[in-house]
Please model this.
Amino acid sequence: MTDPSALYERVQSEVGTVLIGKDELVEALTVSLLTRGHILLEGVPGVAKTTLANLFARATGLEYNRIQMTPDILPADITGTYIYREQEGSFELQRGPVFANLIVADEINRATPKTQSALLEAMQERHVTIEGNTLELPDPFMVIATQNPIEMEGTFELPEAQRDRFQVKLSVDLPDREEEGELLERFDADPTLGPDGVERVVTIEELQEAREVVQSVHVADAVREYILDIVAATRSNPDIDHGASPRASIAFLNTAKARAAIHGREYVIPDDVKTMAAPILSHRLVLSTDAELGNVSRSQVVEDVLSTVETPSSKAVAEAAPYRE
Model:
């Protein structure tokens, strides 16, 4: 059985041959891959959002397709359509780019709401319907969408239903001076450095085995209650008009189990839940008008929510985990 921690270390090491300082993002990508989640990446242009997704796909051996989202792209451009072949006198299915293991929807907020919604069925149901025919998507299947937080002209904000489909939202920040200096040295030594040089270090069989290990990770009753308390707190916080949904609770459970597994533990601790709070909640919360006018950030609200919920003892949680030979 493949150890998720060993799988993560291999992926992290391979991606790190190109990118610098992205270990936390690679960890989150691995967590979502092991739990069948989707990711929303947000960052200014030039911080390697698309490159990160490409590197991750190559290191994990996933078939990768990138879709450049624009206002004129149509749903059929994503899912596919039937094309009439005059010589044969029949219609032939032309599959769209969504039929791959890892889809990068680049600048997703530039597509119209109708086109954005074309991804809804694929992300939630893992199949698409083309002219009445339902077609299964490959397994594994993962969507990584990117968006630019500073350029709003000509964009369409993702509706709540679409945002809720993303398991986590990650911010890709600018590197610090030391990291950027090391990046310059790497590209000075090898100007062609990029995804083409990354090797596959994970097989589909290993991925499936690692997923089974994640599913077997123990979650103590106290941790389950902690998750429920956090989600409930988002629904009663005065700065929040609409709190987290039950889908967020499930995301907490799954990602905490995966994080525990890739850190070599057979049980979830409260820190696993707490670490995933901002990525899981930040894009789901709808702030109140007063909070918006007061420039209260979602990250501040998440911190406030966590501060109001009592954290269970890690020692007690560990003692409650079943002993395994």
